[in-house]
């Protein structure tokens, strides 16, 4: 990869250790993605915020770099481990709380907007078409490339951080062109958001950097999110294209058989102790829809609803949060279904959710069993 | 064609997987043990091996897992992949774990439990010791 004289000097350490580290990461990223140079980006979205996922090594790393590192572009942030307003209600241990607060402080010191959300595309204005950004959250990167006409690598936690600090990212093939390695034909009738999540999970497994999908009808926002969440969980693929007649590439079907394979991999029980919604976090229209669906009904068991703080404030003004709480929902901000210490196998054996991403991480990381259902089915089975 | 993403020179025993690895959530940050029942390395530790696998997948935060296992002395000595992905590339770059991308043919030719030398500065980057 070609570097400018200034970039070379940063890589040699002549602009301090932070810049040297950031450029070392960008060069490894560039080599991995066959980039020939670095280009400016306008927005970075960072992952690596939850103490559960980054651990002591991550907490210490951020604490150390926050002494000198500062972001150069607009930078937003993924969810952390708890909702700061009500963490005292959840028996989270003191060590977790203090390490999580240290991580929060480090990011704020670096100059990051404390958005604590995995759906930046729903809570911030989208820049103009073809703007180069650096999104680390996997569902957000896929959403940005596939639906928002932005350009990003599916960044890692470190490459997005390096981009935030330098304002640059490698000009890799994904930023330049679309070359899906295969075309998936969607062959499921009456799909729900769960179907789209499973399609995304399937596509992530078979796709290379981008994949073409045909046979889709009109999709709503929830279905798009579900697809992006599923795809980000299973693979490295970073973009959906929606071309009905993509010729010259291999075509495979996503049919009942393939769907059942995904379902059987992720669904490990037929009944959950609690219900969780929001992985990726719920946006305002999903909160609105959930409120309507719950009219006159209430959950028979605990239901945790994860939504960004900005959405929760809007929902409160519109009266939705009152209605959801009446129906037995606990509404949590700043965190998400995945990898939260609020759900663990000491007090919960199994979780019912409509999220493919949530299902994968709840099972593999939190060690709880998962019962997958569409939202409509959850409302039918779990409320009265 | 070999491609070096992170430089280094190590000698060790190959642990080979045909499945991609999602470092976040399926690799224990302290021990390096794989917890995904559907993975062919289930319950095996990747610590101190030369880890040969197709590529990293899944969450971008997996880069922190790589940094953590290195800090906890449970990291592989080096990693060899068929496909470059940013989670593994940047995790290895920050943790200074040598990382090489190899062809399908080279990948197939290296077997589990092979003892190999990986030297990114050498002409023959990967050589098997018999």
TrEMBL record, chain A:
Listed GO MF terms: lyase activity
Keyword Iron among UniProt keywords: yes
Listed Pfam families: AcnX
The EC number(s) this enzyme carries: 4.2.1.182
Enzyme class, first EC level, given as a word: lyase
UniProtKB keywords: Iron, Lyase
Catalytic activity: (R)-5-phosphomevalonate = (2E)-3-methyl-5-phosphooxypent-2-enoate + H2O
Domain Phosphomevalonate dehydratase large subunit-like: 1-380
Top-level taxon: Archaea
Function: Component of a hydro-lyase that catalyzes the dehydration of mevalonate 5-phosphate (MVA5P) to form trans-anhydromevalonate 5-phosphate (tAHMP). Involved in the archaeal mevalonate (MVA) pathway, which provides fundamental precursors for isoprenoid biosynthesis, such as isopentenyl diphosphate (IPP) and dimethylallyl diphosphate (DMAPP).
Similarity section: Belongs to the AcnX type II large subunit family.
Binding partners and assembly: Heterodimer composed of a large subunit (PMDh-L) and a small subunit (PMDh-S).
Name by which UniProt lists this protein: Phosphomevalonate dehydratase large subunit
Protein's organism: Nitrosopumilus oxyclinae
From TrEMBL, chain B:
Domain of life, per lineage: Archaea
Alphabetical keyword list: Lyase
Alphabetical list of Pfam families matching this protein: AcnX_swivel_put
Keyword Lyase: yes
Catalytic activity: (R)-5-phosphomevalonate = (2E)-3-methyl-5-phosphooxypent-2-enoate + H2O
Domain Phosphomevalonate dehydratase small subunit-like: start-end pairs: 21-100
Protein EC: 4.2.1.182
CDD domains membership: AcnX_swivel (cd01356)
GO molecular function, one term: lyase activity
UniProt xrefs under Gene3D superfamilies: Phosphohistidine domain
Subunit organization: Heterodimer composed of a large subunit (PMDh-L) and a small subunit (PMDh-S).
Function of the molecule: Component of a hydro-lyase that catalyzes the dehydration of mevalonate 5-phosphate (MVA5P) to form trans-anhydromevalonate 5-phosphate (tAHMP). Involved in the archaeal mevalonate (MVA) pathway, which provides fundamental precursors for isoprenoid biosynthesis, such as isopentenyl diphosphate (IPP) and dimethylallyl diphosphate (DMAPP).
The name this protein goes by in its record: phosphomevalonate dehydratase
Organism: Nitrosopumilus oxyclinae
């Amino acid at each position: 990869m070609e570097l400018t004289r200034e970039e070379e000097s940063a890589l040699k350490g002549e602009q301090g250790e932070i810049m040297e580290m950031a450029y070392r990461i960008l060069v490894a990223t560039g080599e991995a993605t066959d980039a020939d140079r670095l280009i400016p980006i306008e927005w970075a979205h960072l992952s690596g915020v939850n103490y559960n996922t980054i651990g002591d090594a991550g907490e210490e790393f951020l604490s150390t770099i926050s002494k000198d590192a500062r972001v150069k572009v607009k930078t937003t942030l993924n969810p952390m481990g708890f909702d700061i307003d009500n963490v005292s209600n959840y028996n989270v241990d003191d060590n977790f709380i203090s390490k999580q607060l240290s991580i929060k402080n480090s990011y704020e010191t670096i100059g990051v907007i404390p958005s604590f959300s995995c759906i930046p595309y729903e809570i911030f204005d989208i820049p103009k078409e073809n703007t180069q950004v650096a999104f680390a959250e996997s569902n957000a990167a896929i959403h940005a490339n596939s639906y928002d006409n932005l350009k990003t690598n599916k960044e890692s936690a470190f490459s997005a951080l390096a981009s935030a600090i330098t304002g640059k990212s490698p000009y890799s093939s994904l930023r330049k062109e679309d070359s899906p390695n295969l075309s998936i034909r969607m062959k499921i009738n009456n799909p729900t958001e769960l179907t789209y999540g499973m399609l995304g999970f399937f596509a992530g497994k078979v796709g290379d950097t981008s994949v073409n999908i045909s046979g889709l009808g009109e999709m709503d926002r929830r279905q798009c999110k579900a697809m992006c969440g599923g795809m980000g969980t299973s693979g490295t693929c970073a973009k959906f294209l929606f071309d009905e007649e993509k010729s010259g590439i291999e075509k495979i079907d996503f049919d009942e058989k393939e769907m059942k394979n995904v379902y059987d991999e992720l669904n490990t029980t037929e009944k959950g102790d609690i219900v969780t919604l929001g992985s990726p976090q719920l946006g305002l229209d999903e909160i609105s829809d959930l409120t309507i669906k719950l009219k006159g009904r209430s959950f028979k068991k605990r239901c945790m609803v994860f939504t960004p703080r900005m959405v929760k404030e809007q929902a409160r003004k519109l009266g939705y949060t009152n209605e959801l709480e009446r129906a037995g929902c606990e509404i949590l901000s700043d965190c998400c279904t995945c990898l939260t210490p609020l759900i663990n196998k000491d007090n919960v054996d199994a979780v019912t959710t409509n999220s493919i991403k949530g299902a994968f991480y709840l099972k593999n990381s939190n060690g709880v069993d998962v019962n997958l259902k569409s939202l409509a089915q959850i409302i039918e089975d779990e409320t009265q | 064609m070999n491609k070096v993403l992170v430089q280094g020179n190590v000698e060790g025993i190959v642990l080979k997987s045909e499945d991609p690895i999602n470092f976040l959530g399926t690799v224990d940050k302290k021990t390096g043990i794989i917890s995904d029942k559907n993975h062919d390395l289930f319950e095996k530790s990747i610590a101190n091996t030369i880890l040969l696998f197709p590529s990293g997948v899944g969450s971008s935060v997996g880069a922190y897992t790589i940094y953590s296992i290195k800090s906890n002395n449970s990291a592989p000595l080096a990693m060899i992949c068929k496909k470059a992905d940013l989670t593994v590339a940047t995790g290895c770059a920050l943790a200074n774990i040598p990382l090489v991308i190899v062809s399908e043919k080279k990948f197939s030719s290296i077997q589990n439990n092979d003892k190999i030398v990986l030297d990114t500065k050498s002409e023959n980057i990967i050589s098997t010791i018999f």
